[in-house]
Structures are given as C-alpha cells and as structure tokens.
Amino acid sequence: MYQKIKDKVQAILAPLGFTEGKADADRGPMSCVFSKGDQKFMVLWDAAEGMGSVEAWEDGDWAMLESIVPEAPEPKFTECLNALCAEIKSRL
Fold first, then answer.
1. Does pTM surpass 0.85?
2. Which of 3, 16, 45, 47 is positioned for an S-S bond with 30, CB 3.0–4.6 A?
3. Closest listed residue to residue 19, CA positions, set 44, 31, 2, 37
4. Is 43 helix (H, G, I), strand (E, B) or coil?
5. Which residues lie across from 56 on neighbouring strands?
6. 36, 19 in Cβ contact below 8 A?
C-alpha cells in the first residue's frame, strides 16, 4: 500500500522538480520526503493504523493533509488515493 501511495505522489511531484529524500528516523521505515526549495511533502504509512497519509511542510512544521488512504479493498483505496492526490495538487 505504501509503495502505491508513494508512486502516485512521486508521479505528481517529480515532473515539477521535487526530489526524494529520507524522512526523519522517528517517522519509521515507510516514509519519505519530496522537496523542492521550501516546499516539502512527506509520505507516511502507519502499519499499526492501516493507513497512509501525506504531511506538508508549513510555517516550519509538518501538517497532515485532510485526506488519508486506509488499507481498504478497491475501489475505496483508489478513491481515497485520488482525493489525497487532488489535495496535494491544490497546494502546488
């Protein structure tokens, strides 16, 4: 699930010049950061909660976007992932 979310987010951000890096170690192994200048987006997967999310860097701190992607069967997973991607695009 994490890889599907990450790939979809990367498909949005990489063509705009965002580069992938590692998130802080306390965020767990299933996390990464895409950054370009002061703009940053962190992709996270919480295995215990069974959900993926994205946080945006705002005013010197991470803020979770409203849309989350639960570990769910299709089409719910794709529906939630598309909502998350739309929210990311609205912040660019």
1. yes
2. 45
3. 37
4. strand
5. 41, 63
6. yes
